[in-house]
Amino acid sequence: MENKEKEIKKVTVVGIIVNIFLSLSKLIIGYFGNSQALIADGVHSFSDLATDLSIIFGVKYWLAPADKEHQYGHRKLELLVTIFIAIMLACVGIGIFTEAILALKNNNMKIPSFIAFICAVLSIISKEWLYRYTAKKANFLKSPAVKANAWHHRSDAISSLPVAIVIIIASVFPKLIWLDAIGAVIVSIFIIYPSYKIFKKAILNILDESVDQETLSKIEQIALQTKDVKEVHDIRTRKAGETFFVDMHILVDGNISVREGHDISEEVKTNLLKSNEDILDVLVHLEPFNEIESKQNK
Length: 298
What we know:
This protein is mostly helical. The protein has 2 domains: 2-206, Up-down Bundle (Alpha-lytic protease prodomain-like), CATH 1.20.1510.10; 213-297, Cation efflux protein, cytoplasmic domain (Alpha-Beta Plaits, 2-Layer Sandwich), CATH 3.30.70.1350. The chain is 71% helix and 11% strand. It contains 9 helices and 3 strands; from the N terminus they run αααααααββαβα. It has helices spanning 2-32, 36-62, 76-106, 114-141, 144-172, 178-206, 213-224, 258-275, 291-297, and strands at residues 231-240, 243-253, 279-289. A 3-stranded mixed β-sheet has the order 1-2-3.
């Protein structure tokens, strides 16, 4: 857990450094370069800083081992951080959208300069690299908060693309300066939609969402392949971030000893834990197998 915490902090610190540089660059150049779209993009980058910091300060708590008060661990704290990231994204997107609509309505736009275009292109390149780097680490660490942050970086890279396009068009064709505000509207859409997806997934997870049917089938097959297991039923799972808990009923010969039944259930548990590193724990309920009842149920 300690190494995982260090790795999460490491990848997040890289994001902080890049975001500080990009945010200041886009805000300064956007202001002096007369580009509302680039300023909006700079605000978006600044929102990345808030989410980076929430991960830095939150990771030590959600990776803390289970204790007397939290016997299933603290994993859901990570989901709360993920929800915070999603809400931050949505708030930024709505704010940018509102400002852009007001600019179009009041017609108070200026011709953006070419330097603003260069800044937007550099943002696309750096944030796409940061997304790929963070997403790779998120998959390795199996962290939904880091994965959400990676998509935050990707949304920044994507949002900078229309910004670059509208800036170059508006600077070459002054009559089309309204496109700069349109670019800000597009940025807001690229921000709001991913925030909705991140928020939805985290909420479902907090509500003890089950794993997919394919994973359930694999769990059942592994249990059935264990020696002396006659039947398996009532498999239940609940997610805790990217990991999950399993509880299940296995049926064994009712004439064996309690010790033998216990050994079989422990073997089932061990086999499942070895088969999938995302399984945090397995609770096995032992029942006597009745061949007549089993045939009737089928």
